[in-house]
Design goal:
With 217 residues, this protein is an all-alpha fold. It has a single domain, classed as Hypothetical protein af1432. The chain is built from twelve helices and no strands. α9 packs across α11. It is globular and about 45 Å long. The protein binds fe (ii) ion (2 copies). The site of one fe (ii) ion has 6 residues, from loops.
């Protein structure tokens, strides 16, 4: 039986002082991994573990809550293997459909649907974790730090292989802001190359973070 209360407390508390608590959390994560394994294909499950590890590492480097990063990384693709009609059905029922593109490509809903399901089915309520799962595909303006690192980790975790991946990995160690912007650019470029539709939320994200970065420079 998963002690959800304990996890929800620990994700709010960055200072995991006691070894016994650490080992309980390890056990809960292990049980969560078991649940996820039943939801995903083997390949996707391996990817989820890789994103969990990458998000954890980035959280450590940038001084963020590792537990939240690990949970969000682990569950970011929770709904990824649901059939398209099921994603659309749940998305409509929970009023998660925000644009007609999602009706044409229900796969775009697997983030928001996944966030709704991990809250409902697993009792995970940490807003940072839910936001990260919901936003990991499209990104969006003003994302929290955990959502940012999960978006980056999804693209740069072990197993990802595309021309810019090493550059993005290195960048993510030094500047989250720049890495996020370059990851969004890379995703939009990929969509353009494939002549796919681009969701306005991703364009809004690009505009938001490129303006924000200009303000920093
Ligand atoms: Fe995904
Ligand atoms: Fe993913």
């Amino acid at each position: 039986m998963i002690d959800r209360e304990m996890v929800s407390v620990s994700v709010k508390d960055n200072r995991l002082a006691h070894c016994s608590e650490q080992s309980k959390i390890k056990q809960v994560m292990h049980e969560y991994e078991g649940i996820l394994k039943d939801k995903l294909t083997e390949k996707r499950y391996v990817h989820a573990l890789a994103v969990c590890n990458c998000a954890s590492e980035l959280a450590g480097i940038h001084g963020l809550n590792r537990r939240q990063a690990e949970l969000a990384g682990l569950f970011h693709d929770y709904a990824r293997d649901l059939p398209a009609d099921e994603l659309l059905r749940i998305g409509r029922a929970k009023e998660l459909v925000t644009h007609e593109i999602e009706q044409q490509c229900p796969l775009l809903l697997h983030g928001p649907v996944g966030a709704a399901l991990i809250e409902e089915e697993l009792g995970i309520h940490a807003p940072q974790v839910l936001e990260a799962v919901a936003m990991h595909t499209l990104a969006g303006p003003a994302m929290g730090r955990i959502a940012q690192i999960v978006y980056i980790a999804d693209l740069t975790a072990t197993g990802r292989d595309f021309p810019l991946v090493d550059y993005l990995r290195t960048l993510s160690q030094t500047s989250l802001e720049q890495a996020l912007l370059e990851c969004i650019a890379s995703t939009i470029s990929h969509c353009l190359e494939k002549r796919q539709l681009i969701h306005p939320q991703s364009i809004e994200a690009w505009n938001y973070y490129s303006q924000e970065l200009k303000g920093v420079e």
